[in-house]
Amino acid sequence: MSRTLPARRTALLDREVGQAMSRLSAVAKKGLDDPALAELVVIRASQLNHCAFCLDMHLGIARAHGVSEQRLALLAAWEEAGDGVYDARERAALALTEAVTELTEGFVPDAVYERAAMHFDDTRLAHLIGLIVAINNWNRVMVARRVPPGGYTP
């Protein structure tokens, strides 16, 4: 099934909206205090949301933070990849990322939240949730405007 593009889509994002979204992302990442994990989280959400622009951007950032090609390649199958690729803390964060992004049951299941709470103190858990919310916002803004990959420069 092919999608036809409307005649006009704005490439612009209101400056104040963009600044607010950027600030949320930056504060959440800083508070999580684990740049590599932050990138795994935003990449996984971007995979689920089919955001090519964000995937392109965050794959490059993840590599800059030393995330291996194996971990990036297996991220879409993180549950099957096992303990040797992603540790328990990372798997808890990725499970929470999927639950918040998809809200399959209309809410985040208690077991998923409790699993994450076992690995993150209250402050870092709040920042992790903030990061997941932030990337979901970015994904939706970029996908809605159909911004293609390749436009990000560090």
Compact description:
By secondary structure, this protein is an all-alpha fold. It has helices at 15-32, 35-48, 52-64, 69-73, 78-81, 88-102, 110-119, 122-145. The chain is built from eight helices and no strands.
Describe the fold and architecture:
This protein is mainly α. Helix content is 67%, strand content 0%. The chain is built from 8 helices and no strands. Helix 1 packs antiparallel against helix 8, helix 2 (35-48) packs parallel to helix 6 and helix 6 (88-102) packs antiparallel against helix 7.
Q: Could you describe the largest sheet, including whether it forms a barrel?
A: none
Strand content: under 5%
Helix content: 55-70%
Number of DSSP helical runs = 8
As a whole number of angstroms, the C-alpha radius of gyration is: 16 Å
The overall pLDDT average reads 92
Distance between the termini: 35 Å
- SSE run: HHHHHHHH
Name the shape in a single word. Answer: globular
Overall strand count: 0
| Low-pLDDT regions | none
Helix/strand structural class:
mainly alpha
Write a concise keyword list for the protein shown above.
154 residues, mainly alpha, 8 helices
What's the arrangement of secondary structure elements?
Elements: H1 15-32, H2 35-48, H3 52-64, H4 69-73, H5 78-81, H6 88-102, H7 110-119, H8 122-145
Helix pairs in contact: 1-8, 2-3, 2-6, 2-8, 6-7, 6-8
